[in-house]
Amino acid sequence: MRGGLASRLAQVIPTVILVSLLVFSLQQLMPGDPAAILAGEERGDPAVLAQIRTELYLDRSFPVQYLHWAGRALHGDLGYSWRTHQTVSSLIASKLPVTAQLALMAFAFALAIGVPAGVICAVKRDTAWDWLANGIGLAGLSTPNFWLGIMLILIVSVQLGWLPPSGYVPLAEDWRQSLATTVMPAFVLGNAIAAVLMRHTRSAMLTALDQDYVRTARAKGVGELAVILRHALRNALVPVITLAALELGTLLSGAVLTEQVFSIPGFGKLIVDAVFNRDYPVVQGVVLVTALLYVLLNLIADILYVLINPRLRVA
After folding, report:
1. Distance between CA atoms of residues 241 and 308, nearest Å
2. Whole-number Cα distances in Å, 83 to 88, 244, 275, 281, 303
3. Residue 251 in contact with residue 197, Cβ under 8 Å?
């Protein structure tokens, strides 16, 4: 077990280096001259442009620029926003908790709906329950998030007046109001992921229920509930964990349309504003943090494989 985890940790280092190199290359591919953008009204002054290029290492070769940026990033310095002049680290630190709260709530909805529904579909295969759940899952996959969000605002907020239609209140300020402002967008995001998890859980459970160890457990007189939960589901969760880690990474990267519909000031809004304003350091910082979150979540998924499935443990 330790050897397997050590090898996975060793793979993380070159992955992070490659990701950082790709993220830094984004600035080279984007149109426009960063020095001219920062110079503003003085963009016609060659002395000003030269000074900005020197300060930002833009007059150096690509490897020197990358090493300078990577060295600062290792110490948590991702530069500063060209539009607001705030540090990128502070911007990310202010937006990440918002998106993290929204993502974790959406993920909880997805797990609570998708996994049990997938298990029921597999156990009740080819019955009315199976067909109903598959139909609902297909509808969840086919429904655009922005449309579902608008419909929820119209019905739940405007007509029924149960929840606020938009905005965000931090948890530390008022946790009740914070949950009230995020429960609808979290349900919108979790709805589509629940449908995906349901279909994958059903497929994995059907495979597990046909295995010899399940038939052996039943032959030994093990209760049906124990067979389903302890034997079949435990083995079926391995591919589901992979999918769940990727979906959680997607949520943490910022659900752009959903955050726009509900006016949630998270990662999605931050990256959209940065792209439209050609604020390259913010774009680089958000993409880098998002990529690192994906790497971390995949590492956690590898650890969960070993904890859930004893056959993957190495003595």
Report:
1. 10
2. 11, 36, 11, 10, 41
3. no
What whole-number distance in Å separates Cα of residue 82 and Cα of residue 92?
A: 15
Greatest pairwise CA separation for the chain in angstroms? 85
Structure tokens at 68: 């300078």
CATH fold group of domain 88-312 = MetI-like fold (1.10.3720)
pLDDT at position 315, please?
45
Q: For residues 188-205, give the mean pLDDT.
A: 87
Give the global pTM: 0.79
Using an 8 Å Cβ cutoff, are 106 and 189 in contact? yes
**Residue corresponding to tokens 């001219």:** 36
Cβ–Cβ under 8 Å, residues 109 and 194? yes
Comparing C-alpha atoms, which of 314, 194, 188, 175 is closest to residue 244? 194
Band (292; pLDDT cuts 50, 70, 90): confident
